């Protein structure tokens, strides 16, 4: 694992004692959103300026930021292997910590799911990502959910764009964001920032008709009533600071940490 002193918390707790572990995964080799590799930097810098209090406590206490995974540019297979091994190392040192991953493109969610094997994946996304393959590639940012559906049940919210190649039968589409069914845990939350309506974010594949931040916060509050053990945020296309997209991602992280049981 690659450790860094460039952390967003004033005191970086040790991996063994942390309640939350944060790791960046700056991989963007199959997505049209090449600038998503800067997502971890954008989110960290935004978190540094995000208030840590939620009216009850400091939600950024006892966090270990282990830095960024040293990705292998152009190789999903080697990057995925490194990410799975890193998760194994983290879980060996601290089996109970809540894990936060920031990408990078959406393909990073697949090795996370392969290693953590959650019962349920809640996918907030404009796109279904359920194609068996794309342009001859088995693994890409639009196929990850198809392969993850072989491991976990997937519930999708915000999806409004798909192709005829998407196998929509492999995920449950939730149309009413205020009516999420009971979730079997552990739950992994994955947030593609294009789930938001384009005026709110800078992302690689914006789709009109997206969710508003307050709708996403309602979803998060509901999900956090169940056993949520990990999350990732992906497809941030900003390459400059300050970043509205980064600040919104930071607020998502803060909301999850504030509400999770």
> Which word captures the global form?
globular
| DSSP summary, beta strand count | 8
The CATH homologous superfamily corresponds to: Ureohydrolase domain
Q: For the CA atoms, what is the radius of gyration?
A: 17 Å
**At CATH's second level, what is the architecture?**
3-Layer(aba) Sandwich
**What share of residues are in beta strands?**
15-25%
Structural class: alpha/beta
Our count of domains comes out at 1
CATH class: Alpha Beta
Q: pLDDT below 50 for ≥5 consecutive residues: which ranges?
A: none
Terminal-residue CA separation: 28 Å
Structure described in brief:
The chain has 261 residues and is α/β, with parallel strands linked by helices. The protein is built from 6 helices and 8 strands. It is globular, with a radius of gyration of 17 Å.
What features would you describe in this structure?
This protein has 261 residues and is of the alpha/beta class. It has one domain (20-259): 3-Layer(aba) Sandwich (Arginase, Chain A). 26% of the residues lie in helices and 17% in strands. It contains 6 helices and 8 strands; from the N terminus they run βαβαβαβαβββαβα. The protein has helices spanning 39-48, 76-93, 109-116, 144-148, 213-223, 244-259, and strands at 20-25, 63-68, 98-103, 120-124, 153-157, 172-174, 187-192, 228-234. It has an 8-stranded parallel beta sheet. Helix 1 (39-48) links the parallel strand 1 (20-25) and strand 2 (63-68).
Strands, helices and their partners?
Layout: E1 20-25, H1 39-48, E2 63-68, H2 76-93, E3 98-103, H3 109-116, E4 120-124, H4 144-148, E5 153-157, E6 172-174, E7 187-192, H5 213-223, E8 228-234, H6 244-259
Parallel strand pairs: 1-2, 1-3, 3-8, 4-5, 4-7, 5-6, 7-8
Helix pairs in contact: 1-6, 2-3, 5-6
